[in-house]
Specification:
The chain has 56 residues and is mainly beta. It contains one helix and four strands, in the order βββαβ. It has a single domain (3-55), classed as Alpha-Beta Plaits, CATH 3.30.70.20. Bound molecules: iron/sulfur cluster.
């Protein structure tokens, strides 16, 4: 299952450059992960300063 970004996201953008498949982009309310290209590596989750990224 892909990782998801919750409402805890403060849109800092720290996770974006960590993603090896460029699956993270700025959404309407906060950053979002494309579930079709996410390979479940977890790199983004470790980077988030607000623990907003978790596995579904
Ligand atoms: Fe990208 Fe890995 Fe995070 Fe998926 S888990 S969005 S592939 S950094």
């Amino acid at each position: 299952m892909a990782y998801i970004i919750s409402d805890e996201c403060i849109s800092c953008g720290a996770c974006v450059e960590e993603c090896p498949t460029n699956s993270i982009s700025e959404g309407s309310a906060h950053y979002e992960i494309n579930p079709d290209t996410c390979i479940d590596c977890g790199a983004c989750a470790e980077t988030c300063p607000n623990a907003a990224i978790s596995q579904q």
